[in-house]
Amino acid sequence: GTLFLNGRYLPPDQASVSVMDRGFLFGEGIYEVWLVVERRLVDLESHLKRLDRSLRESGIPVPLERAELVAILEKMVCLNNVTNGFIYLQVTSGAGERSFTGTATGRPTLLIMAQEKDFPGAISQSEGICVDLVPDIRWLRRDIKTIMLLPQVMAKKAAMAHGNKDAIFYDDEGVTEGASSNVFAVMDDKVILTRPLSHSLLPGCTRDRIIKLAREAGLDVREQVITQDQLFAAQEVFVTSATYLVTPVIRIDGRTIGNGQRGVVTRQCQDLYADYIR
Ligand code: PDD
């Protein structure tokens, strides 16, 4: 494969970053992940908007103008021959001395990687995943897509050790989001709940798209906090992200959700999303 690092296209083993990079030393960096379907970046614009927002909110300099960035993203799809897969982009505030506030001259570090991954089944994955439900120990600006992912790594590794696939976080109000996804619950009366946007969760591009598609299809989506009780009482639960697309959740903390199988509303959202991305 070929990656992009600070203006150059390189094989991974020839790409290196300074140990003084502030992403390495402080975790001062943000990222994006695009789903690529048939060589197109899904929801290109909304991810670019979120990228801008993450940069602005974290005070990390904008590495490139948008048009230039889009050209590089598209070139990466071609160079790596990605028909279906993912594009990963990361920006850190660059190298300097190890000082919390950094140096004014630091140029941001921009890394872009592409990964081919065939997911014909995953687009409408019928198999559900089992997850842990754990306290959200992250910081209080989860709306910024930061590379500071230690809590997510810990939660996912702990879930794996329990034989589960992933983790869902909760705070004092209820479910915040998955460790790398947003959470939807389908209640008895077919109402679909997902937490309203705030600093407590990432504004997922897939979340946004699913809300739009589901509403257009006449489904009743309400942006409301999902309490823990509602989560376990739900008929269906599913998660969304650039990598999960729409994936059913069938067990949470060992408790079966609904009838333990992908539900009809989840299936409907998968089909809506599949039609949208193809
Ligand atoms: N994660 N919430 C969190 C904490 C996430 O990390 C992600 C995405 C989402 C879903 O956002 P989107 O629908 O825009 O992908 C929600 C990416 C895929 C990752 O970390 O690999």
TrEMBL record:
**Per the UniProt record, which EC number(s) apply here?**
2.6.1.42
One record GO biological process: branched-chain amino acid biosynthetic process
Which reaction is recorded as catalysed by this protein?
Answer: L-valine + 2-oxoglutarate = 3-methyl-2-oxobutanoate + L-glutamate; L-leucine + 2-oxoglutarate = 4-methyl-2-oxopentanoate + L-glutamate; L-isoleucine + 2-oxoglutarate = (S)-3-methyl-2-oxopentanoate + L-glutamate
Q: What does this protein do?
A: Acts on leucine, isoleucine and valine.
Keyword field:
Amino-acid biosynthesis, Aminotransferase, Branched-chain amino acid biosynthesis, Pyridoxal phosphate, Transferase
Q: Name one GO molecular function term.
A: L-valine-2-oxoglutarate transaminase activity
Family stated for the protein in its record: Belongs to the class-IV pyridoxal-phosphate-dependent aminotransferase family.
Q: Tell me a GO cellular component.
A: cytosol
Q: Which cofactor does it need?
A: pyridoxal 5'-phosphate
**Pathway(s):** Amino-acid biosynthesis; L-leucine biosynthesis; L-leucine from 3-methyl-2-oxobutanoate: step 4/4; Amino-acid biosynthesis; L-valine biosynthesis; L-valine from pyruvate: step 4/4; Amino-acid biosynthesis; L-isoleucine biosynthesis; L-isoleucine from 2-oxobutanoate: step 4/4
Its lineage reads:
Bacteria, Pseudomonadati, Pseudomonadota, Alphaproteobacteria, Acetobacterales
Pfam families, from UniProt? Aminotran_4 (PF01063)
In terms of InterPro entries, this protein maps to: Aminotrans_IV, Aminotransferase-like, BCAT-like_C, BCAT-like_N, Class-IV_PLP-Dep_Aminotrnsfr
User: Gene3D superfamilies attached here?
Assistant: 3.30.470.10, D-amino Acid Aminotransferase, subunit A, domain 2
Q: What class of enzyme is it?
A: transferase
Q: What is this protein called?
A: Probable branched-chain-amino-acid aminotransferase
